[in-house]
Specification:
It is a single chain. A 6-stranded antiparallel beta sheet has the order 2-3-4-5-1-6, with helices on one face. The chain has one domain: S-adenosylmethionine decarboxylase (4-Layer Sandwich). The protein is α+β, with helices and mostly antiparallel strands and 112 residues long. Helix 1 runs antiparallel to helix 2. It contains 2 helices and 6 strands; from the N terminus they run βαββββαβ.
């Protein structure tokens, strides 16, 4: 096994307004990065008009990304990490708590 891949589809987000702008969803990504000791070596953000955002973090260990769809009350989060050092349950807890527990997370964790 080379690593683990988390795909999280977050649906029915009640506070979906936080999905509209890079600066309102960025705290979620920063918390995932900081609490899981991810090593960011580059990052890109794109703000869509009138709303929606994509954030991509290039990690020394692979990548973390989010694509937001506020009009659908939905976002897609992808984390691939080429080690077993990340607690994906912790990542899912961070996501769930960021949305105040008022969302549905459909997750897929794949051993690569």
């Amino acid at each position: 096994m080379v690593g683990k891949h988390l795909i999280a589809n977050v649906n029915n987000i009640s506070n979906y307004k936080c999905l509209e702008k890079v600066e309102t969803i960025q705290p979620l990504m920063k918390e995932i990065i900081e609490k899981n000791n991810l090593n960011v070596v580059g990052e890109l953000h794109h703000q869509f008009e009138p709303y929606g955002a994509t954030l991509l973090y290039l990690l020394a260990e692979s990548h973390l990304s989010i694509h937001t769809f506020p009009e659908e009350k939905y976002c897609a989060i992808d984390l691939y990490h080429c080690s077993n050092n990340v607690d994906f349950d912790n990542v899912l807890d961070i996501i769930y708590n960021f949305f105040n527990g008022d969302c549905i997370i459909i997750k897929h964790i794949i051993d690569r």
